[in-house]
Write a structure and sequence with these properties.
Layout lengths: L5 E2 L2 E2 L1 E5 L11 H15 L3 E7 L2 H6 L3 E7 L8 E7 L6 E6 L1 H4 L17 H16 L9 E5 L5 H7 L7 E6 L7 E2 L2 H5 L13 E2 L2 E3 H8 L2 E4 L2 H6 L10 H6 L4 E3 L29 H12 L9 E8 L5 H4 L3 H6 L3 E8 L1 H13 L4 E5 L3 H10 L2 E4 L9 H7 L3 E5 L2 H6 L5 H5 L6 E3 L4 H16 L1 H13 L4 H16 L1
Parallel strand pairs: 3-4, 3-8, 4-7, 8-9, 9-13, 13-14, 15-16, 15-18, 16-17, 18-19, 19-20
Antiparallel strand pairs: 1-2, 5-6, 6-7, 10-12, 11-12
Helix pairs in contact: 1-20, 4-5, 5-7, 10-14, 15-19
The chain binds adenosine-5'-diphosphate (ADP).
The site of adenosine-5'-diphosphate has 17 residues, from helix 1, strand 15, strand 16 and helix 14.
């Protein structure tokens, strides 16, 4: 343990506020980060703790004790309780807001089971932010030096603290995805007692609405995002989602730090979801996972055919619309495909129709399935991730760790983590995948052909797998960069 990270002799105290955290509740990469980063920070000697809404899955999985009761917020009918437990399998204390009227309902954290946003999301996440701000006032037992906020759901925290003279904590706002901005009506200003002057272009106003994300970006003491390339991307009109001006103005307080991955959860040597464990020294055993995956997905056992995997939210962001038109061409090469995803109903239907057309070549599983996601990472030879934009991306790193060579578009975190298999990079033994430039199906297909050519050369392919498997994607390095940001704010 590194005990350097102290202020006046005591550990740096950090409250990590988030709307999801694996394994309690997860819809995407933020869930993974919220589990792994606080853990890694604690291993570096910080007193990092989580704050999370009390969704049913959170209350069920944690054994919780009450730490504060009777916290009242207008306009809630009933007072809240603050409970505390410990992350399953981890070491991080988790504060949970028990508020049945906001969080205890069927459906997802942001949407109901039909995929519609909860109508009261402004209130649900405004209250999450209010409770975080109470910690910032040092009104509760835990008195954080830094409050680390994540995405729009926590964007009001920096605004609440900025307008509160009693505030004691510094704020960091992390962007995991700019595309979700938390836009709500102006009634939010009164609802949460924000001063009228906050509703301005120099504040949280965005084209006549209130943006929770903009509140965070404008009022936070520091901004981070999840890769250096995405930090640059979001200062441009193409990727800034309208906030490029603000981010350019604040670029001296904007840092890009690549996410790590949880190397315990994602380790082909110890992964309990997969049928045959393997590592870099025992790479041929990977093939048994390919066989097991084919069997599970009812794909024929073709000897030399590559199996291409894709695990994704089915949204335009992930480039599924680039993949769909070329699926027949991909299958014509002799490759098989295993796709796991859920999201846009139109994409789901189109994929299912193609799977019905090519039952021996294409397997499509609609839904969210943690176990199958591990089995695809272990069983596939190639992983497709042709995102239009990608703040960091985790699956390309999981893939490299599992010896599954990724094909990615050069954007955001994909550009920062995958090294293209150019002849030069192959020669230097640093190549880990295949990278293409423009948002085009034709370019993606050409890149895939390039990958298939290498796949047929067993020696080159093995080297690509080994290069990827040897990369260090642990959180340790990234967590240290976050510590530097926190320390710069409190000295
Ligand atoms: P994003 O957060 O934009 O969805 P990331 O690549 O950063 O993308 O993280 C996605 C995470 O969610 C990964 O852990 C991935 O394995 C997981 N995931 C996405 N879709 C599914 C699914 N249908 N089933 C299981 N896991 C999924």
């Amino acid at each position: 343990m590194d005990n350097k990270h102290t202020i006046n002799g005591s550990k740096l105290r950090l409250l990590f506020v988030t709307s999801e955290a694996y394994p309690l509740v997860k819809t995407g990469g933020l869930g993974d980060v919220s589990y792994a980063l606080p853990n890694a920070l604690r291993q570096l000697g910080l007193d990092a703790r989580l704050l999370l809404p009390g969704y049913p899955t959170v209350l069920e999985q944690l054994s919780l004790v009450e730490v504060h009761e009777n916290i009242r917020f207008y306009p809630l009918q009933n007072p809240l309780r603050l409970l505390v437990g410990t992350m399953p399998g981890g070491i991080t204390p988790v504060y949970v807001i028990e508020c049945p009227e906001l969080y205890e309902r069927d459906g997802g954290p942001y949407q109901d089971s039909s995929g519609t946003d909860w109508e009261d999301n402004a209130l649900r996440f405004g209250i999450l932010s209010k409770v975080a701000a109470l910690f910032g006032d040092h009104n509760l037992l835990f008195k954080p030096d830094i409050i680390h906020c994540n995405d729009w759901q926590t964007g009001l925290v920096p605004a609440f603290l900025k307008f509160n003279p009693k505030s004691r904590a510094q704020t960091v706002m992390s962007i995991h995805n700019m595309a979700y901005q938390g836009l709500f009506g102006t009634e939010v200003i009164n609802l949460f007692g924000l001063p009228p002057e906050s509703f301005s272009i120099f504040g949280l106003e965005y084209y006549g609405k209130v943006s929770f994300l903009k509140a965070g970006l404008f009022y936070a003491d520091w901004i981070t995002t999840v890769s250096p390339t995405y930090a640059k991307d979001i200062q441009t009109a193409e990727y800034g989602c309208g906030f490029e001006g603000l981010l350019t103005q604040r670029n001296q307080q904007l840092t890009g730090i690549v996410n790590g991955i949880d190397t315990n959860v994602w380790d082909p040597k110890t992964d309990t979801y997969i049928s045959h464990s393997y590592d870099v020294k025992n790479l041929p055993a990977k093939f048994r996972n390919t066989q097991a995956l084919r069997k599970k997905l009812k794909l024929p056992q073709l000897k030399n055919a590559p199996l291409i995997g894709m695990i994704t939210r089915l949204t335009e962001q992930k480039g599924i619309d680039l993949v769909l038109p070329i699926i027949p061409d991909i299958l014509k090469t002799g490759a098989q495909m295993a796709i796991l995803g859920s999201g846009d109903k139109n994409f789901e239907k189109r994929l299912q129709a193609l799977a019905a057309l090519y039952p021996n070549k294409l397997s499509v599983t609609i839904g969210y399935n943690e176990e199958l996601s591990h089995q695809i990472e272990a069983g596939a030879n190639i992983f497709l991730m042709p995102s239009k934009f990608e703040p960091c991306g985790l699956n390309q790193m999981y893939s490299m760790r599992y010896g599954t060579v990724p094909i990615v578009r050069r954007t955001g975190g994909l550009a920062d983590t995958v090294i293209d298999a150019t002849p030069e990079n192959i020669k230097k033994q640093i190549a880990t995948g295949f990278v293409f430039e423009t948002k085009s199906s034709t370019e993606l297909l050409a890149c895939l052909h390039r990958a298939l050519q290498s796949f047929r050369n067993k020696k080159t392919w093995r080297q690509l797998q080994i290069n990827g498997m040897k990369r260090d994607f642990s959180w340790h390095t990234s967590a240290k960069q976050y510590v530097s940001v926190y320390e710069s704010l409190i000295v």
